[in-house]
Amino acid sequence: xxxxxxxxxxxxxxxxxxxxxxxxxxxxxxxxxxxxxxxxxxxxxxxxxxxxxxxxxxxxxxxxxxxxxxxxxxxxxxxxxxxxxxxxxxxxxxxxxxxxxxxxxxxxxxxxxxxxxxxxxxxxxxxxxxxxxxxxxxxxxxxxxxxxxxxxxxxxxxxxxxxxxxxxxxxxxxxxxxxxxxxxxxxxxxxxxxxxxxxxxxxxxxxxxxxxxxxxxxxxxxxxxxxxxxxxxxxxxxxxxxxxxxxxxxxxxxxxxxxxxxxxxxxxxxxxxxxxxxxxxxxxxxxxxxxxxxxxxxxxxxxxxxxxxxxxxxxxxxxxxxxxxxxxxxxxxxxxxxxxxxxxxxxxxxxxxxxxxxxxxxxxxxxxxxxxxxxxxxxxxxxxxxxxxxxxxxxxxxxxxxxxxxxxxxxxxxxxxxxxxxxxxxxxxxxxxxxxxxxxxxxxxxxxxxxxxxxxx
Length: 457
Ligand code: FAD
Fold this sequence. Notes:
Blueprint: E1 2-6, H1 10-21, E2 25-30, H2 36-41, H3 43-60, H4 77-101, E3 105-108, E4 110-113, E5 118-122, E6 128-132, E7 135-138, E8 142-144, E9 157-158, H5 160-163, E10 172-176, H6 180-191, E11 195-200, H7 211-224, E12 227-230, E13 234-240, E14 243-248, E15 251-255, E16 257-260, E17 264-266, E18 299-301, H8 312-326, E19 340-342, E20 347-352, H9 355-360, E21 366-371, H10 376-380, E22 387-392, E23 398-405, H11 408-421, H12 425-429, H13 440-448
Parallel strand pairs: 1-2, 1-7, 2-3, 7-18, 9-16, 10-11, 10-16, 11-12
Antiparallel strand pairs: 4-5, 5-6, 8-17, 13-14, 14-15, 19-20, 20-23, 21-22, 22-23
The chain binds flavin-adenine dinucleotide (FAD).
Protein name: Dihydrolipoyl dehydrogenase
Keywords: Disulfide bond, FAD, Flavoprotein, NAD, Nucleotide-binding, Oxidoreductase, Redox-active center
Domain Pyridine nucleotide-disulphide oxidoreductase dimerisation: 338-445
């Protein structure tokens, strides 16, 4: 069985490896670098930069822990970028190695469907190669949305693609969109000294999360002196004398740069979908069935090009499931337990349903909460801000959870497992949690659903 994957982001490369492990002969086509947006322009570079600014923060706070740092502590932005670039290229090599080790042919070029079983690759030198495939997986990812109003120029008006390659730290930056990308990059820049203003059209930043959760981040952003404007949109944008001037309804904002992070759109432009009879929906997404197969039999689509959350771990899971299905399986992705993570300080992580969604749906639910402040471990590491909130249905089944605070993105794994398996608050709360750890906040929040948290005041 010959399988061709187009796009080597986290969706495509994991699909390729899974298919190879299941015995398929696999070729993967990538026009840029393996690892896709996630590795080259997304998850990994942002987290590398955030890790650098975290270290800066820890060192500045060292005295509180009885550690004296003599001499001046300063942030070296270009070294932070170098470290990030080095990490990314090491990991690109790592993925290429993995692909080759699994006997997968990597073809550099733009892949295009010729029909349901033929893919044309246009290589950098203009030469073309035609591949015959029994099955095809489309995984071409997404690009930033930047409407004409913003007058994107890649220099003053930029997207996350450019911000990750800045040569120097700007003095001021307007960030349009207070979602995950806007918040992570905004806090990173602020911590290195940039004056940051976040403009978010919705009533709160992180609009997909509950208000009490987002409030914790807002509190920290206020401490960080990040300006937040909510409930308003940008009405005009121009660049004058090397400055960006933006209208926000009746106010004018001015800054060195503007980053537009208002969302991403599927990238399917070069794919030749029409040649296989595939049409996209109004938002450019490729419709698929529960097995991730498109309307063209034998052609699957995964990741940011379909109507599922724009997240690397969703793309990866879909890649693995599509590969299994392409090789005769009958699997589905469990979308009820998709973790959502924001790597700011405090971190924000959530899974399943939110309280606001349940209120809108007028569904019965119960809540248990526990503040990190009440934990020995949180006090020891001086990270007491935030809480765990768990949500159960009328049968005590866990249907959602949020963690905002230290290591929230790692802590969420236990709650994701519980929501995935449909476990009850009692079942998970009965598990012995190690002391002193941050995970005790989860146990206490689960006990709190029944009013039985020992340490809750
Ligand atoms: P992509 O990763 O976009 O990969 C698609 C690949 O296909 C690309 O390499 C592209 O060059 C290639 N391609 C496109 N067309 C063709 C063609 N015709 N022929 C050949 N190759 C082609 N997600 C998280 O889960 N956690 C995070 O922390 C996180 N942080 C992010 C931070 C930023 C700044 C951004 C922008 C995104 C972030 N994401 C994060 C989202 C995540 O990066 C994407 O959801 C994920 O990369 C989608 O994977 P994919 O495989 O669908 O597509």
